[in-house]
Specification:
The complex is a heterotrimer of chains A (about 425), B (about 500) and C (about 130). Chain A has two domains: about 100 residues, Aspartate Aminotransferase, domain 1 (Alpha-Beta Complex); about 260 residues, 3-Layer(aba) Sandwich (Aspartate Aminotransferase, domain 2), CATH 3.40.640. In chain A, strand 5, helix 9 and strand 6 form a beta-alpha-beta unit. Chain A has 13 helices and 14 strands. In chain A, strands 2-8-7-6-5-3-4 form a seven-stranded mixed β-sheet, with helices on both faces. By secondary structure, chain A is of the alpha/beta class. Chain B is α/β, with parallel strands linked by helices and about 500 residues long. Chain B has a domain of about 250 residues: Type I PLP-dependent aspartate aminotransferase-like (Major domain) (Aspartate Aminotransferase, domain 2, 3-Layer(aba) Sandwich). In chain B, the strands form three sheets. In chain B, strands 1-7-6-5-4-2-3 form a seven-stranded mixed β-sheet, sandwiched between helices. Chain C has about 130 residues and is an alpha+beta fold. Chain C has a single domain, classed as OB fold (Dihydrolipoamide Acetyltransferase, E2P) (Beta Barrel), CATH 2.40.50.100. In chain C, the strands form two sheets. A six-stranded antiparallel β-sheet of chain C has the order 1-2-3-9-8-5. A three-stranded antiparallel β-sheet of chain C has the order 4-6-7. The chains are: A alpha/beta (about 425), B alpha/beta (about 500), C alpha+beta (about 130). Chains in contact: A-B, A-C, B-C. The interface between A and B is large, with 196 and 203 residues.
């Protein structure tokens, strides 16, 4: 199907205006040797019905998988509003006069994230939590002239991998802080030995295993670091847990996909980044500010743009240009739809459910790998056979973690959210 | 303009921040409550006793709020965005419809992911074919992310050869992300001048090729809309020197089915799915910037790689030993990838070729007419976009900024302005192939009227636009009085406004 | 555009006013015009040692951020805190109230190598052609 609106008459008129007889003449500047004379070997054109008939797989009816991407209830109004063409076909709001919808939505998102994390400011999004960590590390290094990055080993393995990729060509040492074998909380003694003013320290809370870190104690130690960052991969936790900002970090960053964005087979995600007034001008990404127009009406615009790539170029705070745009607007709509009581209730459901499911698994003889307090994820030991049994019953049992943590044999990360049901629990009990 | 006389507007309600409508008890949403249980006692030390400070409003207020906000926005479904190098083409609805199918799939769900990965493997093949390259990664979430990935690949390839090269040559008209991405990848950059006819000359490249040069980053066609005709020679020079050629594929819409980066000698490039392949811009994202490489760079591609054994499920492999590592926590912006896949098969080979031919025809249709009333700094033939300047209007006190703002009163989003930097007061125009002739004619008429008004009434420009939801915005005030969250507004703009 | 004769100039559009072994430093009228409305100024801290050409801070407008470069070798003695509150002073009085830093010069004779106002004015005319 072609989306080109011209009919032959239109085309004739245009060719005449340009003074040519065929579009081919417009490509004369391309050397003959570079011309691709064959047809591109791609299928199509296909009509819409043919495309609709492409087989689609069915989602497993029961899913206990999380690990950085979470299934949550998304009110119908989020899809309805995000599907408005004014939001989803709009361009980046560089021309504020015709972008107030996008700008105000992002401003409201920034406000809510700053408030939920207990920090001063938020940006308008980064690609995902992992790149947010990488950007935070770069910001920390530049701000305080640091040589080392400390990150807990219980931080999401994919995040640590992306961090390593981003810092590969900077002379920066990345050191991992181990976790206590029994609780899976960070080993405070070792952290104390490793921390220093020449290092940035990042900790994920709740950590990759779902365990809640002893943040008061950690904050005391972290004070001695050159830069302290807290990573949050399950944004829903911000609706229930003590605000990360209470622990005095320089930055709170991570993944806000849980706010109104479905799993979408892996993306798009929503990297969030919040910081203090001190680091405001070093913060990567776009920022929306409130101002007024010259008629005196309240208005919004992109601000502090001089730090960004299109002006500062190689000295920019980051190379980011396109961010996660619509996902940010969905998050603003979601939080507005859910409300403070609702958010707390969802988080509570997740925690309550996880503890219930953990109980069921324990009764069935599966030992939890750790003893620490947990949010809505936990690790049990479950061998390949038992996992396959569950899969054959239409259950995604969780995420195997041996690849990243070989010392936890048969480790399986199990996640429970308000999307799981009574039937899921029953199914689990019956299958095992 | 007769069209403007018939415009009527419905009274719009100015929408305050939603938090100002918040009051306890307004939100009556029934949250799913499957577990009917409370919190375990041992967690009390971690719990915040207070509720979050987010709006407590009813569903209807939420819907009205964002609906009213949306009505202050312009979108492609409303009118043209002639933004150079952005390729703001129509976003086909069938792409949205199909992408919607994957939304509930969790990446750990093997069977549905198998279908998704099979589709993504097909997308890889099609992009490789379109670009004439050998291998592909779909994970970079945007063009700049792709640039970074590509430069990391090149860096690793050089390290593998034991070459210590730390500089990337970048033409003076490059997009700002080019040098910024190089910096993040650990490279220094050197700007090199384009020739007076608007394309990079092999001789210039030769002059700058010293022992530090790792690569050259080129955009083709470049940001003037001109085809880099010496790219073949430039590629040969670089390769003979042991350096690489990276291409920014932002302008791929000009050459689909006509020429291919792989055939030009490009070692590595990124494409922008939200440009060339019609996925929506979403107010700033999500986009997608897949990276394609020649065979000799394949082993450095980021992990995971999509793998498939016969009679088995499509899977992800994290084992390739020479990979630069992971660049994204997951598998990129999957729904965007699916939209691009649907776009490609909707168009087919003939449709893709027609894209580029019509993009060039539309752009030249505008160029020929607008060059009569605006300065056209480069006379070299252009493809899908071209650059004007405000040279003929400046001495009447009307600048590119004024022209851009005035266009909004005619119902257009302005073109790209003040870029590329090599043209002072640049106005970069790219209509794309999906603009109807009537819209193009309307644009020409608007620009001609602007040019004419510049001569007769230049003073009217300084307070345009007048018909938009807000008029020109005080960006200086915004920067001097940073107000970035609603808690920072407790005192300022409302007071200022009422003065 | 003004080019006072009581200061010396650099090609990076800074001016320096000598006061014994000290030098008052700011940006020129041409520079502030090119920048547009200044919204933010930031300096290195007092006590920082600088070589000629090192950056002693940045000046930011809505359309650009420019580094500020030390015209001579020396140490920062003082920074102008008024600019933190009122960055627009740079546009209003760039040679007077909007001085940016005071440096203790390592070698006052270095001043001789800086341009006088006539040479700087010629440089600016060539740039703006």
């Amino acid at each position: 199907m072609s989306f080109i609106p011209h009919n032959p008459e239109d085309r004739r008129k245009m060719l005449a205006t340009v003074g040519i007889t065929d579009e081919e003449e417009l490509f004369a500047t391309i050397p003959e040797g570079l011309r691709h004379s064959q047809r591109l070997k791609v299928p199509g054109p296909l009509d819409e019905e043919t495309i609709r008939r492409i087989p689609q797989g069915r989602v497993s009816r029961t899913c206990f998988a999380g690990g950085g991407i979470y299934r949550h209830h998304i009110p119908a109004l989020v899809d309805a509003l995000a599907a408005r063409q004014e939001f989803y076909t709009a361009y980046t709001p560089y021309q504020p006069e015709i972008s107030q919808g996008t700008l105000q939505s992002i401003f409201e998102y920034q406000s809510m994230l700053a408030s939920l994390t207990g920090m001063d400011v938020s940006n308008a999004s980064l690609y995902d939590g992992a790149t947010a960590l990488a950007e935070a590390a770069i910001m920390a290094i530049r701000a305080k002239n640091l040589r080392r990055i400390l990150v807990t080993r219980s931080t999401n393995p994919a995040y640590r991998a992306v961090l390593r990729t981003y810092l590969a060509n900077h002379a920066i040492e990345i050191q991992e802080v181990p976790f206590e074998r029994t609780s899976s909380q960070v080993d405070q003694k070792i952290l104390e030995a490793m921390i220093g003013a020449d290092a940035a320290f990042f900790i994920q809370n709740p950590n990759f295993f779902g365990t809640l870190e002893p943040m008061d104690a950690v904050a005391t130690i972290a004070r001695r670091a050159g830069f302290f960052g807290i990573i949050v991969t399950e944004a829903i936790s911000l609706g229930l847990l003590r605000k990360p900002g209470e622990y005095g970090p320089d930055a709170v960053l991570g993944e806000a996909q849980s706010f109104g964005n479905p799993p979408n087979a892996g993306g798009p995600l929503l990297g969030f980044f919040c910081t203090t007034q001190e680091h405001l001008r070093r913060m990567p990404g776009r920022i929306v500010g409130m101002t007024k127009d010259f008629a005196g009406n309240p208005a919004f615009c992109l601000t502090l743009a001089t730090r960004e790539q299109h002006i500062r170029r190689e000295k920019a705070t980051s190379n980011i240009c396109t961010n996660q745009g619509l996902c940010t607007i969905r998050a603003a709509i979601y939080l507005s739809a859910i409300g403070p009581k609702g958010l707390r209730s969802i988080a509570t459901q997740c925690v309550a459910g996880a503890h219930q499911i953990m109980g069921i698994l324990q009764e069935k003889g599966f030992t939890p790998a750790f003893t620490g307090p947990f949010f809505h994820e936990f690790v049990v030991r479950m061998d390949m056979d038992k996992r396959r049994t569950l899969e054959e019953a239409g259950i995604v049992p969780g995420i195997p973690i041996e690849r990243h943590y070989p010392e936890i044999q048969n480790g399986l990360l199990v996640t429970v959210t308000e999307m799981n049901t009574r039937e899921d629990s029953k199914c689990l009990i019956e299958t095992l | 303009m007769s069209d403007r006389n018939t415009i009527r507007t419905f009274p719009e309600i100015t929408e305050p921040l939603l938090i100002t409508r918040s009051a306890q008890g307004k939100n009556k949403r029934q949250i799913p409550d499957p577990f009917k249980a409370g919190l375990p006692a041992d967690l009390s030390e971690f719990i915040n006793p207070e509720q979050a400070t987010i709006p407590d409003v009813s569903e209807v207020e939420t819907v009205r709020h964002f609906t009213r906000l949306s009505r202050k926005n312009f979108g492609i479904d409303q009118g043209m965005y002639p933004l150079g190098s952005c390729t703001m083409k129509y976003n086909p609805k069938i792409c949205e419809h199909i992408a919607n199918r994957i939304k509930n799939i969790h990446p750990a769900d093997k069977l549905p992911m198998h279908n998704v990965l099979r589709a993504l493997a097909a997308l890889q093949r099609y992009l490789e074919e379109i670009c004439g390259m050998d291998a592909c990664t779909l994970w970079p979430a945007a063009g700049a992310h792709g640039e970074l990935t590509g430069m990391l690949i090149i860096r690793k390839a050089l390290q593998a050869k034991g070459a210590k090269r730390d500089t990337v040559l970048i033409p003076d008209m490059a997009h700002g992300t080019n040098p910024a991405s190089c910096a993040v990848a650990g490279f220094a950059t050197r700007s090199i001048p384009s020739g007076k006819h608007g394309f990079l000359e092999a001789g210039t490249v030769k002059e700058h090729l010293d022992e530090n040069v790792a690569a050259l980053m080129i955009t083709n066609p470049n940001t003037l809309g001109i085809f880099e005709q010496e790219i073949g020679e430039i590629a040969d020079l670089l390769h003979a020197h042991g350096s690489f050629l990276y291409m920014d594929g932002a302008n791929l819409n000009a050459i689909l089915g006509i020429t291919r980066p792989g055939d030009m000698g490009v070692d590595c490039l990124h494409v922008n799915l939200h440009k060339t392949f019609g996925t929506p811009h979403g107010g700033g994202g999500p986009g997608s910037g897949p990276v394609l490489v020649q065979a000799h760079l394949e082993k450095y591609l980021p992990i995971p790689r999509i793998v498939h054994e016969p009679h088995q499920l499509f899977k992800l492999s994290y084992t390739p030993p020479d990979s630069i590592g992971m660049v994204h926590s997951s598998v990129g912006n999957v729904s965007v990838l699916i939209k691009a896949l649907v776009y490609i098969v909707s168009l087919g080979p003939r449709g893709l070729l027609e894209c580029s031919k019509t993009a060039a025809l539309n752009a030249n249709y505008l160029r020929v007419q607008l060059a009569r009333c605006f300065d056209l700094p480069y006379k070299t033939p252009t493809l899908h976009e071209f650059v004007l300047s405000d040279k003929q209007q400046k001495d009447r006190g009307v600048t590119t900024l004024d022209i851009a703002k005035a266009l909004m009163d005619y119902g257009f989003h302005p073109p790209t302005v003040y870029f590329p930097l090599v043209v002072p007061g640049a106005i970069m125009i790219e209509p794309t192939e999906t603009e109807p002739l009537e819209e193009l004619d309307r644009f020409v008429a608007a620009m001609e009227e602007i040019a004419s008004l510049t001569q007769s009434n230049p003073e009217v420009f300084h307070d345009k636009p007048k018909l938009t939801p807000v008029v020109r915005v005080d960006e200086v005030w915004a920067a001097r009085n940073l107000c970035l969250t609603w808690s920072m507004t407790e005192s300022k703009p409302e007071e200022e406004v009422s003065k | 555009m003004t080019f006072p004769d009581d200061v010396r100039y650099t090609k990076d559009h800074e001016w320096g006013r000598v006061d014994g072994t000290r030098m008052w430093i700011g940006i020129t009228d041409y520079a502030q015009q090119e920048l547009g409305d200044v919204v933010f100024v930031e300096f290195q801290s007092v006590g920082t040692r600088l070589k000629r050409g090192d950056s002693f801070g940045t000046v930011e407008s809505v359309k650009a951020v420019s580094d500020l470069y030390a015209p001579v070798n020396g140490t920062i003695l003082e920074v102008n805190k008024a600019l933190e509150e009122t960055p627009e002073l740079v546009n209003q009085d760039c040679y007077g109230k909007a001085w940016m830093i005071i440096m203790e010069m390592d070698d006052p004779s270095e001043v001789e190598s800086l341009w006088d106002n006539r040479s700087y004015e010629q440089f600016v005319s060539a740039e703006t052609k």
